[in-house]
Design a protein that fits this description.
single chain; 82 residues; alpha+beta; four-stranded antiparallel beta sheet; 12% helix
Amino acid sequence: MLKGASQLANRESLSMIMVDFSYDGEIFNLDKVYYASEIEKNDWKVFLPVEEIKEQIMIMYLDIYGNEYREVKIVKDFRRKQ
């Protein structure tokens, strides 16, 4: 484990979120970057423009250690539950 790694919470170690609004299932094409500093200022919320989403998007979360987590979403995944 890296020195100091256990001292940081998930949000504190977030570096950025990168989004491909028209992910084709193979190649990630960067469309938008949300840096941790701006996400923190927005109460840790990221607002994705629904009109930009094609069939599916890929969201990549990167931390300050270089780790990444990827997920593929479709518009339906973002619908508010009543």
